[in-house]
């Protein structure tokens, strides 16, 4: 037992045992990373404690990683169809905030208890982090621990019951969304056309192709009377009755057929002289440039047939701006393809490299901005604090992605490590600190503590479901993603995934999650400031 008084040993013991507890599943319920709170509560109840500086370090690491994770999708989630999804999530967060303030007035909760219940009911660890930073006591984590269990179970139950309550057919919903996605994101295809337009034979392809064919790419040419195709590059000059392979969407290929000539049956497989290669863009110096600027067909004599980005194939249009992580499908002879490979990088390890200086610079900027005095009419002078400043820095660094040759966005693997490490440090300390006050808190508030947490969990979903389905007209499967994302509930998303194997719920969850993360933090700040 003496060893447990060693802060480092106790810290590791609380985090490791918390992770083990979080992996225990009862049906589909598990605590996940919040298991650290409960092992911390147990350690605190037994009389052990941890230094507060560890909590501060864990807090800024965790909040910065949240900002990095939310940054790239924060602006995107407000565009196009994502706007309706984001509005649905914001309605849920606003409902949760109003419900929390109502419970505070009705049950007589303190602002610390209210913020802790709000964070636990909506399973929001960032919300708890804000409450702990502003409260400087252990009442919020104790309330969080009380409300968290129903916060998880309640969302799972609602998701499981919604299909019956709303009489939704999962099969019909899947089919409806499949048709919608097919019309919005047509698949990249190819066809073979015979050149019958003499206007295309008057000069190189870079000059004779009309503007309306910008969405297609001519990748191969089989000369009339020849048995082997050749690579199509910018300087290629077509002849009448040549056969060309054209790559693009079905609609774009139909336009190409009108311009070039009729569809023909042909085999344009390359011989051993030309090869096809998938090349990963890993060099930050190249990221951000367009295919037109790289001019690969003229400089290297290769053809880019398509680009794979985030698992989806995109047309290789000349104005497409490349990103790190793009996969370019290149055709050319072995020597030229190897040169293109060197220029683009093709190094998976580079995508996972993390600059410690960039990470520390982001944290430094966040803390500095959080301490900067700001003024708002009616509110006077205030500061964003450590969480607000670091969150803003993470959002900006993640959204900007790159400044010159410096990559400001953390790779997903590095960000996940920093997030889990920071979260573990933070939860271990706040859980341990709350352990000594858990029993007095329960004695003081008793059953209203559980009742308030349950109301805060159910109210956002009871309001969010009709708003999403009837007002915003969000399809059922996407609505499941909005509901679970608005509650920041990973177990809820798992329950939604068990209803349908399609990715629609998960995609909607990912779209609203950045908004929900930021919204939870702001709502927790409001609860603490209004108290």
From TrEMBL:
Stored Pfam families: Asp-Al_Ex (PF06826), TrkA_C (PF02080)
TM helices/strands, residue ranges: 6-24, 36-63, 83-103, 115-136, 142-162, 350-372, 378-400, 421-439, 445-467, 479-499, 511-530
GO BP term, example: potassium ion transport
Alphabetical UniProt keywords: Cell membrane, Membrane, Transmembrane, Transmembrane helix, Transport
Gene3D superfamilies linked to this entry: Regulator of K+ conductance, C-terminal domain
One GO CC term, this protein: plasma membrane
Topology within the bilayer: Multi-pass membrane protein
Chief subcellular location: membrane
Cellular localisation: Cell membrane
Annotated RCK C-terminal domain residues: 262-346
GO molecular function: monoatomic cation transmembrane transporter activity
Domain of life: Bacteria
Entry's family note: Belongs to the AAE transporter (TC 2.A.81) family.
Protein's name according to its UniProt entry: Putative transport protein
Organism: Desulfomicrobium norvegicum (strain DSM 1741 / NCIMB 8310)
